[in-house]
Fold:
Amino acid sequence: MKVKILSNREVAPEYFKLSFSATKELLKGRPGQFLMIRGDWGSDPFLRRPFSIYRCRKEDESVEILYRVVGRGTRLLSRLSAGDILDVLGPLGNGFPVFTNKGNLLLVSGGVGIAPLISLAESVGSGISLIAGGKTKHDVSYIADDVEELCIDVKYVTEDGSMGQKGTSVSVMREMVTPNDTVCACGPFGMLVEVQKLSVEIGFSAYVSCEEKMGCGVGLCFGCVVSGVDGEYLLVCKDGPVFDVQELSWDRNS
Ligand SMILES: Cc1cc2nc3c(=O)[nH]c(=O)nc-3n(C[C@H](O)[C@H](O)[C@H](O)COP(=O)(O)OP(=O)(O)OC[C@H]3O[C@@H](n4cnc5c(N)ncnc54)[C@H](O)[C@@H]3O)c2cc1C
Structure:
């Protein structure tokens, strides 16, 4: 479907928040679901790119994504401005489960993996904890205002110590997590592997949102296959992107 961009702001070097007018269908998007998006930029790149829903604003009928410029598609996206048209497919995939016991919910992000977790935090409400990690403060500081609005307990962590605690999201998680917690995580592949190892060691349950390279987003191209624990193939776009971490076999995926 075609939608109109409302704003496309650079919130930190290479990080952008893009908001667009949303149809009723798009506003049904749940935390962890994603959208396939491309601008009107000709045929290169041809395929839409996947982005998590960052915020659904039902009151002003808009949806926001948060993205980092990493290649040609995201570079072209960053050059679009208010009034330009986007081609959007979605909401797609399976999001996070609906949590009834929010007291034990711990959200853990690495870099731009924060996007689906802010959406989850917004839907669950106050009383949960978030560990937001990045390499430097450049990778996390731009979310501080949005996080403050959510009234949740937040810990920032950076690898160089330039914001919050020095370390990684997983090293801080190890200090905090208990077997009664449910962890929801999104970030680089290596981080998700560590979350799975810790979940086995400590005994908490965990859901991870995977960011595999993706072609079609609807289960046709088999570009985003990951291995399940029983050797079966799972598609990030249709079976995920959110998985119970115990369903995945990282040995086969690495
Ligand atoms: C379900 C899902 C949700 C996502 N949500 C977000 C989001 O909210 N915000 C955001 O910034 N990004 C998100 N991504 C990643 C985003 O889709 C890619 O960064 C984007 O497609 C890159 O397009 P490009 O043309 O700029 O880069 P390309 O030119 O295609 O690639 C540039 C570099 O990025 C790497 N790359 C490409 N696609 C991915 C990917 N899917 N995951 C990791 N590395 C990749 C390539 O290996 C290459 O090194 C998500 C991915 C998935 C699958």
